[in-house]
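Lab notebook page, bench 4
Experiment: in silico fold of construct C2
Operator: M.H.
Input chain length: 153 residues
Purpose: comparison with the prior construct
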Amino acid sequence: MKLKFIFITLLFSVHNMVQAQQNNIITHKDWLNYTLNQYYKLNLIVFQQNSTLKDIDKIFELFTDDFTYVHPNYGGVYTREELYKGYKRNQGNGGYDGSVVDIKIQNIIYGLNAITVSKRFITKENGKMVEGNEQMALFKFKHGKIFMIKEYW
């Protein structure tokens, strides 16, 4: 059983390395940055009025099965399933209306399997682009995927 787990872990690691090389990702920092950018890129798609459930599913492909989202200011800790339901609910009730047009990354600090990000949402209000308040988030990674996101705003 233990040997099977090691084999599967090794196979998964090789798959991630091959995928990273195909995307010209060669360092640990590059891989973290690529995954972070994919996360924000996919969220921008979901934030649009015409987004679909498939768009949400693409975000959740970036997460581990035991992923958690932590946002003390908005209710605390959410499991992967709870967050997924929240995305679906927001999409269904028109919460994603296209008002968020970009996410501007101000600063990134890279660590071992972790990134801290300072970012701002760019919204369209009355025909003008408006930069939101600076927000901080911590991303932790495990087995090639996002394991946890903790928001500090």
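Observations: Strands lie at 63-71, 76-79, 100-111, 114-125, 128-131, 135-142, 145-151. The chain has one domain: 27-151.
Next step: discuss at group meeting.
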